[in-house]
Design brief:
mainly alpha; ABC transporter involved in vitamin B12 uptake, BtuC; 13 helices; about 0% strand
């Protein structure tokens, strides 16, 4: 219903029912197009991306036993940004018609590069993994800055992508991200018992029958792929994978069998709500912007909502080591 063109709920309901092919209500063609081709894919993509980021954030926080961990902690988001900015800034050099593929390749490639650097003798210390991620992020950040300086007229598009956006969503974006997200989160849910045991420490987990290194590799790989699928279609959206799992942990407890699916669903709801706020014209009015201008990327809204709430949790001492 909400957006530059306000549509009443009855018309929205009729437009959605028309998509089933069972009924055929008389709906103005403009409204049918807005609902079916503009807003529904945007809402669906927000749900998929929020689902992916919150699920990956839950795994990363359990993996590192740190409530400050999020899906970008080992450079996945920065790797995606490097791939996307390269495709946007140098379209004649990067051989892809869409930024989705180079962003996905950049994200997954960065995750496995960090893992390869941190692994020695068949073991991957968590601290080394974290430091390798920080170093790779710094290098890719410098590379992104260089590409932005030389991006010319494509600068604005690259910057908007890096802020996280959903204003050009299409059903093809949903089709790209949904299968990877559903498959990846399903695999993660199958390993919730191992995640619970890893919270006890790697040595105790080994004595309890968990193949620690194999499980760490699988969790890291699948969480990175799920994150890559979300970031590739929506850009870098912060705080979803950080705040949502942390809040749900306070509500439902640390058991990943419950925490992972509930966090994923809450992440989907949160990002849909944040994107609804992002597309309101009232946000543009204080700056004298033209009505309908997609000037507020959803990544800005999630940061504005997430950062103060996280500071509130810090002041209440609700952030503890897992």
């Amino acid at each position: 219903m909400l957006g530059p063109v306000r549509i009443d709920p009855v018309t929205v309901s009729k437009a959605v029912l028309n998509l089933t092919g069972v009924v055929a209500y008389d709906v103005p063609s403009a409204h049918q197009t807005i609902v079916a081709d503009v807003r529904l894919p945007r809402i669906a993509l927000a749900a998929v991306v929020g689902f992916a980021l919150a699920a990956a954030g839950t795994v990363m926080q359990g993996f590192f036993r740190n409530p400050l961990a999020d899906p970008s902690i080992i450079g996945v988001s920065t790797g995606a940004a490097a791939g996307a900015v390269a495709a946007i800034a140098f379209p004649t050099v990067v051989p892809f018609s869409s930024v989705h593929v180079p962003a996905f390749i950049g994200a997954v490639g960065t995750a496995f590069l960090v893992y390869a650097i941190a692994t020695e003798g068949g073991r991957t210390p968590v601290a080394t993994l974290l430091l390798a991620g920080v170093a790779i992020q710094a290098f890719l950040g410098a590379l992104i800055s260089y590409m932005l300086v030389h991006s010319g007229e494509n600068l604005r598009e690259a910057v908007v992508w890096m802020m996280g956006h959903l204003h050009r969503s299409s059903w093809s974006d949903v089709t790209f991200a949904l299968p990877v997200t559903i498959l990846g989160v399903s695999v993660l849910c199958a390993y919730t018992r191992e995640m619970n045991v890893l919270l006890l420490g790697e040595e105790d987990a080994h004595h309890l029958g968990v193949d620690v290194e194999r499980t760490k590799l699988l969790l890291l790989a699948v969480a990175s792929i799920v994150t890559a699928a979300g970031v590739a279609v929506a850009g870098v959206i912060g705080f979803v994978g950080l705040i949502v799992p942390h809040i749900l942990r306070l509500i439902v407890g640390p058991d990943h069998r419950i925490l992972l699916p509930t966090s994923a669903l809450a992440g989907a709801s949160f990002l849909v709500a944040a994107d609804t706020i992002a597309r309101l014209d009232s946000l543009a009015f204080p700056f004298g912007l033209e009505v309908g201008t997609p000037i507020v990327p959803v990544g800005i809204v999630t940061a504005v909502l997430g950062a103060p709430f996280f500071l509130y949790l810090l002041t209440k001492r609700e952030v503890h080591e897992l």
